[in-house]
Design brief:
Elements (H helix, E strand, L loop, with lengths): L1 H32 L13 H4 L1 H8 L6 H11 L3 E5 L14 E5 L4 E2 H6 L3 H9 L10 E2 L4 E3 L8 H18 L5 H20 L8 H20 L7 H18 L13 H8 L2 H13 L7 E3 L5 H15 L89
Parallel strand pairs: 1-6
Antiparallel strand pairs: 1-2, 2-5, 3-4
Helix pairs in contact: 1-8, 1-9, 3-4, 3-7, 4-11, 6-7, 8-9, 11-12, 12-13
Length: 405
Amino acid sequence: METSLGSALLPLIALAASLVAAVSVGSLVVAWLRKPGPDQTAAITDPRTAGMLAVGFVSGEATRRWLVATVLELAEAGVIAIDDRRGLRDGDEGRARDIHLVFDADSLMVGASADAGDPSTQVVASVFAPTQAGGSDLVSRGASIEVDQVLIRNRPLAWLTRDRLLDAAGWYRERRPVSRFRAATIGGVIGVGLGLLSLPGPEDDSIAWIAVVVGALAIGLRVVLSSWVPLNAAGLELRERAMRVREQLALPNTRTAATLHGSVLPWAVLFGESGAIERAAEAAERFRTPPDWYRSSAPFSSGRLVSCIALVSAQLSQPIRLGPRPVVTPESRFGVPMVADHRGWGGAYFDANGAGAVHGGLGHTGDFGAGTGGVMGYDGGGFGGTAYDGGSFDGGGGFDGGGGN
């Protein structure tokens, strides 16, 4: 009798659990499809003040080029020079190793200042980290590094990128709904598990099948939603204002020498506006006013400057893989870049030419560093390893990361 009663209750419990999972993800979809309320975060929405990575984060693919754009900003500020030592033949772009980044300011103690949160100091310290022998905290004036060596085995730069992406996610993205994700995961697993245990049974198994199907769909939708956490109101405003900057760059009216010494080049590189870069370089050649930060072993020409910037951009663009964009429109809240680089077996964040530097481990280890469950990584293991959360971008192994963002 007790066995029969248990067999009859099992499908009902499974169905109830699956319905909890379905309600959790369904309510989340409804909430995210609504227009966000007024900004409550006091986040900066001016692109020039928010910074290159924040603008890249809300804009999508531009996230990859935040470092290149920031280096050019520092160049225009007189902090970094670009030394172009290429010997070019006709039609030859030369080698990236012959382009050097040179620290062109007074010697800088990077330890205490970087800890204090000076953004420029943090970038300088990270870019020139491979030149600091013995872990020195001093970046001396004239310190030089080949542009193709900046990303290789550069742990400080990898951590800086991670921290800034976490900051951007905290300011410009909706908080990750950990409780609803967890309810969907637990309810879906229980529903599917108990539903399958009820099959085949002596009673009508239609309820069990409904529980299995609903639970499986809820789990699948929950996994998808973890990569589609949308922008909040501040993120949408920052993206809209950034797109205005991009539209201005695309206009063919930046033809004066002054544009090269302003903010055109960093933003043009960030947004991949090659036309704006070419126009600025042509203006510099026409008016014979090459940028102060560009040092060349050959006579200055617009083509040489453009090819130099292209090589620097190719070498300093980070391999940040972006998440899916379910609705690709300017008005969409979705399309936020998600870091999920090389997840799985022995993936690495920096792996250019096979020279990975900041490795994840096997199985459920996070992609960004050692440890289990993604504690040090961009990705947590198991379900939910695609969004920023907890101490990593999706902390915790297993079915759901802990902590919220």
